[in-house]
Amino acid sequence: MPAQRFLNALVIGFFLAVTFVVFWQIETDFKAQGIASGGPYDNAGSFPKALAIIIGILLVIQLFVDRTQQENIPAKENLLTSDLLRSGSMLLVFAIYLLTLTSLGYHLATTPMIFAVMFICGMRNFIRLFFASLVISTSVAFVFEVFLNVVLPLGLWSIYIPW
Amino acid sequence: MILDFLSVGLDVFLSPLILTLTFTGIVVGLVVGAMPGLGPLMGIILLLPVAIGLPPVGAMGFLIAIFVGGSCGGSISAILLRIPGTPLAAATLYDGYPMAQKGRASDAIGIAITSSAIGGLIGGVVLVFCAPILANFASNFAPPEYAMLAIMGLLAIVVISGGSIVKGLLAGSFGLIISTIGTDSFSTGLRFTFGSHNLLNGFHIVAVVVGLFAISEMSAQMLKRDLLKIPEVKVARPGLHTIFLTLTHWINLIRSSAIGTFFGAIPGAGGVISSFTSYAVAKASAKPDEAYGEGTEGGIVATESANNATVGGTLVPTLSLGIPGDASSAMLLGALLILGFIPGPAMFENNPDVVGGIFMVYLASNVFLLIVGILATPLFVFVLRIPKVYLIPSILLLCSIGTFALQASVFDLQVMLVFGLIGILFRAADYPLAPVVIGMILGPILEANLRRSLLISREGYWIFLERPVSTTLVAINVLLIVSMIYLTLRRIRSSKVNSSR
User: From the list B186, B218, B405, which residue is nearest A150 (CB)?
Assistant: First the structure.
């Protein structure tokens, strides 16, 4: 399972990066602030440092475990490229939505996001897509604005519904 | 003492707002529980931003009711669709679905709901009696005991919850590291903030949890090919006679509820282990004419009473020690912290109204579960017909607006997205997510008590062996670590044997 091996390596790389950041920050920023040494009161670096060492030891063990289990990784459900594309596209649309939410405002950003996600899911009836996305976005806005008194992002054009 | 909590709690509980919130929580819980892929944890996560704006007991009533309803709701889809709405209902499949195939779907759902409610009430009685006693015992605890207890909570969850122990420990350590981001409460130094004012208080736990669990789950749902499919479900209307049907299995009911409560109180064991264990015990002690696995009522009684009793059990260490039993109770603990209460003996002493209120909302949730579950089953069956194409964007929207509503912060949305990506990566590589959250919640408790212990100690780390309770906890932690090493070595050895074959 090369894909699984790649994923395992990716997570191990992620943990290595976390460990590196902890040591790097302790050696630079913590030392500059004077919180990287001394007794338990002053040394704010001792706990994260201990955790980073534990992560390092666990990574070595995990690498060993991965090596011994390389041939016994159970096959996961058979995913097609189209399945991965669907999921990836959803994430991309969602990321764009989050990035544009404050500048476009809730009402301008949300309906297109829901429309796009439902389209990615496979819905092709445009009238249903349009009305469903409008109803979902408006009803969520109603609940949050009217019942929970949340001010949703208005955007550059200050668009809101005066309920 | 116990009656004091209940009487104070009853005063708080008997307000229209709290009654309404508890009732609404049960409806929401049954809906999220019934929908495959959601479940009580997701329900709590999605509605946590809403809950933290409510009065404390109302908020906890709402979330606990979601936990209770969600733990039962999974049985509806397990019985009707042969798809457990939550892993908690996986054991209910064995007899629930065959019973439905025999034309007794309504009876099966009625028995599942009644067993859940009665199991939950039995768990509630244990909660009401044991939590104050445990809190009273823990009131003598000092920093060394709390530090060892936090380590025990984390280790127990990793050992008992199954899966790879090393991966669980890595995930838990990652959660602990995240908890150190922000201003250090001792030295007031800034840790891992990279000059950003957004990180002065660390990451908001809700943003992290929504990303880790909800975004990664929606991404996993998008991989499936049934997004437009409308499941075919027959209408089921359980009658009141199912309550009497359930009560005819009273020995099974009490035994399974006791097993569920016991496993709930052990950090990490949770509802899945308790429901499968109860099922196995019920099957072993069944009469020869009871054909377990072919649609017998006893199978549903065993699994459903156990998994809801687990909720009561898991609240015992959560409330009295501040050690969560599983990811859902970790979220309840997180909610209490956000609301300004620190679970543990101090809460029992200083906020008896909140503790009593929590007891009452938990007991009432199970009564509401029986009423709503029996009367409104057709509604939950209807919910099963909603295709995922509508659910996925709605949940994404709830995630983003709920997270934004926490403190009107765009940064929280970015945190949610980043942790969503981390959650996807962890899921893909089979790393458990629950230890991350539990590490994040236990992190500040562990670090503060570890450093306090060393501050008051004249002999460094020996302080942990100078006090009897602390020494016992150290011994338990050593045992847990030894069992971890043993289990990991056994796994490596068995995989070597398999590969040599």
Answer: B405
Quote the Cα angle for B471-B472-B476, to 5°. Answer: 115
Output the average pLDDT for chain A.
88
Token pair 């191990």 is found at A12
Three-state secondary structure along B147-188? HHHHHHHHHHHHHHCCCCHHHHHHHHHHHHHHHCCEECCCCC
Residues present in chain A in total: 163
For tokens 């429309």, what's the residue?
A115
Residue B32, C-beta contacts closer than 8 angstroms, at least 6 positions apart = B38, B39, B40, B42, B43, B46, B66, B69, B70, B73
Q: Is the pTM of this model over 0.90?
A: no
Predicted ipTM?
0.93
Which pLDDT belongs to residue A15?
Answer: 96
- Pick A102's closest partner by Cβ from B410, B452, B496: B410
Arithmetic mean of pLDDT, B233-243: 84
Average pLDDT over residues B404-422: 90
Please choose, from the candidates B354, B348, B316, B353, the residue with its C-alpha nearest in 3D space to the C-alpha of residue B335.
B354
Task: Give the integer Cα–Cα distance in Å for A157 and A3.
Answer: 46
Angle at B280 between CA B279 and CA B284, to 5 degrees: 115
Task: List chain B residues with CB under 8 Å of A91.
Answer: 219, 420-421, 424
Q: Can you name the residues that pair with B182 across neighbouring β-strands? A: B191
